[in-house]
Design brief:
By secondary structure, this protein is an alpha+beta fold. It is 28% helix and 24% strand. The chain is globular, with a radius of gyration of 30 Å.
Length: 584
């Protein structure tokens, strides 16, 4: 028996008269008395099947017994539809069925298998195998497949070798908690699942494989949000004998290839570069969205020594200019003030200045600042009549972050963001370290193998907090797509960095001795980058979450509600591993 001669999305008017066989799932049935219509679905599309009570009553009765999601095979002749459906690629034809076989009946599914399902998130996650039948998810996974093939072809053309690295490794500090795996053969000892193949790809450079790539699973035990999963996929790459510019040029090429081949978007010229400091000061974020303006401007000097104590007592005063928003009413401004006071943003308040069309001003600080003073503000922001200034004050870092969030919110409310417009950029010159207040020590902003800028190496002894990393992130439309750095390839410099991070020589030797030893045998200068593959697919699919570009993701509590994982182990398994569960 032949299950199918064609897919359900392939047949067209030119196929009229052909005898065909299709197999798939019943999308819906329509019983019109003398005629019964079945929409048959597979991942390629939908084709209408027709059963006629007059010409074949037994077959028509059989069709009436079909329920949603039954798996069937139907054979018949392709005919032109009298009532064409312009919304379907196959909408000009139908199949006059002369043979029907039920391959598998189905229970009524707990939600509709349609673009807009009536199932909630948790229900669809529980029955993920059904959710994956829906066309939007099928399109996402087909997009993911296509992007993976383009990436592999591009990197292969650039001379990269795809080399697999171990999944059971040693626990090493890389910024997040490790997932650990107990060893049965070595009681009391544990493997860790890799947060990234970082150390192995550096060792491959020492081994002489000067261009490495891998589309690889990584694992981090961290709190989840829309763009995070406990297991995720990286496009992991490393290169030897390269500078930062060599790496940026190579992977700009990859990004342009993806934009061109997948979205048919041409991006010309080099990507814009801004420093981390510029990104924070101008956009309030190290992953700025440049599809619109509304840059942050500092106003601290302009308002110093005023009678307004809120400004006088603040380390930083700054704001944004919202174009054409002077017409916002109090009912529109009050929710904005409440918005910035939410715990996620943490601002103490919001000051507004309306620059009216008649070139007068109306503000929430009219008591302290007159028209000429507000004109100075407006000039500082390059504001035009009809614009709205939104000002915040407080501790510098926190206020800039709050302004960055407000900038995005206002762009959304003013409809300034074009979803089909893409602005990629490189953010460079990150700080090498960040201060951990709880631990009272420096931690690596990226990871402990990131090379400092050569001119900042003396600062490792003098003032580590001021040292900059030879690091870079690729950002597209406010999404950090990937990041990397030039690595340390000198053992002495690596030891100095470990020292700055608070590692004792013994601890550094215990955790990274194999890497330090490898550097003694001729390590080349090298660097690389890792892209969040899930994020990249989600960006191209127009999604805010990576969950629906992953076949079997976890929920926001890191649980697989379909398999009910994580799950407990029975006593015999625990005994075999030498593990005892301690009750809280």
């Amino acid at each position: 028996m032949k299950y199918r001669t064609h897919h359900c999305g392939k047949l067209r008017l030119s196929d009229t008269g052909q005898q065909v066989t299709l197999s798939g799932w019943v999308q819906k049935t329509r019983d019109l008395g003398g005629m019964t219509f079945i929409d048959l679905r597979d991942r390629y599309g939908i084709t209408q099947l027709v059963f006629n009570m007059k010409t074949d009553p037994a077959l028509c009765e059989q069709a009436r017994e079909l329920g949603r999601e039954y798996v069937i095979t139907a054979a018949g002749q392709v005919a032109e539809r009298s009532n064409k459906n312009p919304n379907l690629p196959t909408g000009d034809i139908e199949i006059i069925v002369n043979s029907l076989q039920i391959l598998n009946p189905a229970e009524i599914p707990p939600f509709t298998i349609e673009d807009q399902s009536d199932g909630g998130d948790e229900l669809r996650m529980k029955y993920r195998y059904l959710d994956l039948r829906r066309p939007p998810l099928q399109r996402n996974l087909m997009l993911r497949h296509r992007m993976a093939q383009i990436i592999r072809r591009y990197l292969d053309d650039q001379g990269f070798l795809e080399i697999e690295t171990p999944v059971l490794i040693k626990s090493t500090p890389e910024g997040a908690r490790d997932f650990v795996v107990p060893s049965r053969l070595h009681a009391g000892r544990f493997y860790a699942l890799p947060q990234s193949p970082q150390i192995f790809k550096q060792l491959l450079m020492v081994s002489g494989y000067d261009r490495y790539m891998q589309i690889v699973k990584c694992f981090r035990d961290e709190d989840l949000r829309a763009d995070r999963q406990p297991e995720f996929t990286q496009i992991d790459c490393e290169m030897s004998f390269v500078t930062q510019e060599d790496i940026l040029e190579t992977f700009e090429g990859l990004a342009k290839e993806l934009f061109n081949k997948v979205l048919h978007v041409e991006i010309h010229g080099e990507f814009q570069k801004i420093t981390y400091e510029q990104a924070i000061n101008i956009y309030g974020s190290d992953k700025p969205d440049l599809r619109f303006g509304m840059q942050i401007r500092e106003l601290t000097a302009e308002v110093s020594n005023s009678e307004f104590q809120v400004f006088n007592q603040a380390e930083y005063v700054g704001g944004i200019c919202a174009p054409g928003a002077a017409g916002f009413s109090r009912k529109q401004l009050a929710p904005l003030t409440d918005y910035v006071k939410t715990p996620q943003i943490g601002a103490k308040g919001l000051i507004y200045v309306k620059y009216n069309e008649n070139q007068t001003f109306k503000s929430s600080v009219d008591k302290f600042f007159d028209g000429p003073a507000l004109q100075i503000w407006a000039d500082h922001f390059d504001a035009q009549p009809g614009d709205l200034l939104l000002i915040m004050s407080g501790e510098r870092e926190q206020t800039l972050k709050a302004l960055g969030t407000l900038r995005l919110e206002m762009a959304s409310r003013l409809d300034l963001i074009k979803p089909d417009h893409y602005v990629p950029l490189w953010v460079v010159d990150f700080p090498l370290f960040e201060w951990n207040e709880e631990a009272q020590r420096f931690t690596a902003m990226h990871h402990p193998f990131t090379a400092p800028k050569p001119e900042d190496i003396p600062l490792l002894d003098q003032d580590p907090g001021k040292a900059h990393a030879n690091a870079y992130d690729l950002v597209v439309n406010g999404v950090e797509i990937g990041g990397g750095s030039i690595r340390i390839h000198d053992a002495a410099l690596q030891e100095k960095l470990f020292e700055a991070l608070g590692f004792s020589p013994e601890e550094a030797r215990e955790r990274f001795g194999f890497l330090m030893d490898a550097f003694q045998y001729g390590a080349p200068p090298h660097g690389g980058i890792a892209f969040g593959f899930d994020r990249w697919v989600a960006l191209f699919a127009g999604l805010g979450s990576i969950r629906d570009v992953i076949a079997f993701p976890k929920n926001n509590m890191a649980r697989d509600v379909m398999m009910e994982s994580p799950a407990s182990l029975n006593d015999s398994q625990l005994n075999e591993l030498g593990i005892r569960i301690r009750k809280k």
